[in-house]
Amino acid sequence: MLQIKDVTLQDVDALVVPVLEEQVALHEEINLLVTSKAFQGKEEELFVLPSLDATVKYTLYVGLGKLEDFTSESFKKAIATAVKKAKSLKAKTVGINLCVNEKLCVGSNVKNITEASLLGLYSFDKYKAQTEEKEAMTIYISGVPQEKQERAHQVLEESKNTVDGVILARDLTNEPSNAIYPETLARKVVEIFKDTDVEVEVLDEKQIEEFGMKAFLAVGQSSTHKPRLMVMRYRGEAAGSETLGLVGKGLTYDTGGYSLKPTDSMKTMHSDMGGAAAVIGAMYAIGKNKAKKNVTAVVAACENVIAPDSYKPGDIIGSMAGKTIEIGNTDAEGRLTLADAVTYIIEKEKVNKVIDVATLTGAVLVALGTEYTGVVTNNEEFYNELTTVAEKTGERFWKLPSCKEFAKLNKSTVADLKNIGGRNAGTITAGLFVGEFVKDLPWLHLDIAGTAWSDVCEGYVSKGGTGVPVKTLYGLVATPCPCSHQKDK
Question: Per DSSP, what are the bridge partners of residue 317?
Fold first, then answer.
């Protein structure tokens, strides 16, 4: 539970005090720590000061470094680290002081503290035998001026709903494939949105076939778990207004098919629906916060497995758009499902802009590691919208080149396209394959293969699904904060 309320150490089990290096001298109570060099306010410093009274209480001083180097990301990491430390100290109630400065207003403090605290405490352990009962932590955001209270409470509620969307995406990504497969994911989506303003429609394999989605069906046809197409519609504006389309790659498990992955590469392939999870999480945040935009999302969910009727390298298949595709690699399956999903959302849902989100290529990890999501786009203005929002959310994006020479690598001599462009520029050619189906609409392709999953637990990022890029997708349709003119990167 998270509330806005002024507290002191007398009111809580632990009090988190974020400190910039320039502010250290202003804290009389830590002068001795500074003198002894136990704490100097440097970034990533954390000092725990116990207090013995009737009970044990703790003051957690967390360093933020110099103001000139201060960022929202470093602030969130510091807060998350302190909250997790408070949890390890068995604190049930925790106060967190604001750190208002020229780079971070009151509203941004509330937003960042909310994200850092709730995401920092996240864990996916539903399948563990619980050896001890979990106790909920109550967190108080302390120091909000009276004149800012109303707006702060609005920011708190919006931020909690957005974080719930991130957590939903993390949960879905972390679920094993024997729990989440196309049919169960579809039922889960219906359940998630039943009490929201998001309308859900689920198409089964027969309806998918009637729409001519041959590429999508080719990937999922051989699995016992049959494909499902999930459509989520939110209307925050009048009919006829512009509609943003979100498309999420929904491979609930990917063996690679006949182009079989090695065992080690398959261990986390339940996360190959990270794009679908992010889109679902973003739609949840959009619906709960009642955004003033129209958004439609589509998820084409299936499994890529080996069976007698699996598609094979060398096959030529069709697509909803009428283009034929030569199969060069059955492990390049995500772009096939995205091709039909993008065609569907454009032709049937009549969206005006498209963002597809996919754990698409290993090549993006080689190029950008786990810090940046790779972007392929046909519209610079749309990309600039994305990066402007990302400066606030802390999620990082990097635009890759998309000249016609790269697009030529996807051309086939026996079909309209081939589903693998070759060894070079793998992330770009994969994105441009999807781009062949967007019909010149403003389009962003987000390859989250490096950012949707983390092998480490650090700051407010937990091991497993990260929920990237839910915050940025939501931010694209959210009402800007009144203090968004402040520099806050």
Answer: 325
